[in-house]
Amino acid sequence: MPAEPAYTPYDGSTRPFTIGLKPLDLAKWIEIDRHFEFQMAEKRRVYAEHGALAFVEEEGTEAVQVEVLELLTAHLRAYFPERYQDHDGQLAAIGQPPPEPGLPPLKTASLLIQEDLIVMRRSADGWRLVAGALCFPSSWSLREKFGRTMQDIHIPVPAFGPGTRTAGLIERIFDNLAVEQPVERFNWSIQAGDALYHPLSDRQRIDRSGRRLSRLDGDDLAASTFMRVERQTLRKLPASGDILFTIRIFLDPLGVLERHADRAVLAASFAAQLSALDQSQLDYKGLAADRDRLVALLHHMSR
User: How many CB atoms lie within 10 A of CB 269?
Assistant: First the structure.
């Protein structure tokens, strides 16, 4: 029987299309669970098959990449000493192939943990994506967003693009983020199948929004449809002043809600969140054609 979901932001604790930042206990910055071996193998596969799409770096980011690797290495030694060991001077997960020598430091760091890593840097135009190790994209393209400001990155997101109130608020949050107080937030989406590597270009998103075709095939919607929860943490780095995102993906079939101890509450709340999405939000999430079927299933689960 599948385990219960680790996080359920669709329970009403996090509203879709909101910033939703909460203080983060640094002891819980990085998470390791029973999917560690599988997800690390999947990272290595993605790098082997899609390397140019999964890692980017600007010239001049070497120092911050080293800062990230050193920060992460110190954290793993302190909080997971039973899971890691030194291998020729480099930390490696026990039972996992050590990262190859000579890799960019941010890529090395990404091969130690299940989280993906994104570095944002302040420029005259705003906070820009200057380096990234992203093996598990949630319907976006790292190569497309590389070098762009946060406001430009959010152009496709309803009410998050340039000139919006939310965009200005995010800029102020980034500017004022304190080194000693990291934060976390959650997103959720729904996808067909359990692929962790789930990229989507802006052109593909526009085409998907225009056609509004069903993405959820199969007779057993509860088994073939997966809830994709994205846990993000944000840390202001002490030496560079850059901001590090960690992005961790949790995938659960919709059917796990049927066996959850709080099934009725979770299913009803999830149905309410889906029902509240407007057309632009449905198009962004690719749910315009499937929302009603999902809501009906969730209402059935909530009884």
Answer: 19
Asked, for residue 162, whether it belongs to a domain, the answer is yes
pTM higher than 0.90: yes
How far, in Å, CA of 265 to CA of 222, rounded?
17
43: in domain: yes
> Residue 215's CB: how many other CB atoms inside 10 A?
17
Tell me the two tokens of residue 241: 């002043």
Considering its fold, how many domains does the chain have in total? 1
Mean pLDDT by 10 residues, the chain (303 residues): 85 92 97 98 98 97 98 98 92 94 97 98 97 98 98 96 96 97 97 96 95 87 95 98 98 95 96 97 96 96 93
49 contact partners, CB below 8 Å, separation of at least 6 = none
Which residues lie across from 228 on neighbouring strands? 189, 251
CB atoms < 10 A from the CB of 13, how many? 12
Nearest to 205 by CA among 254, 291, 144, 149: 144
**The domain containing residue 185 runs over which residues?**
10-212+229-253
Question: Distance between CA 156 and CA 211 in Å, rounded?
Answer: 16
175 within a domain of the structure (yes/no): yes
- Cβ(228)–Cβ(248) under 8 Å? no
Instruction: Report yes or no: 173 and 30 within 8 Å, Cβ to Cβ.
Output: no
In a domain, 152, yes or no: yes
What does the radius of gyration of the chain's CA atoms come to, in whole angstroms? 19
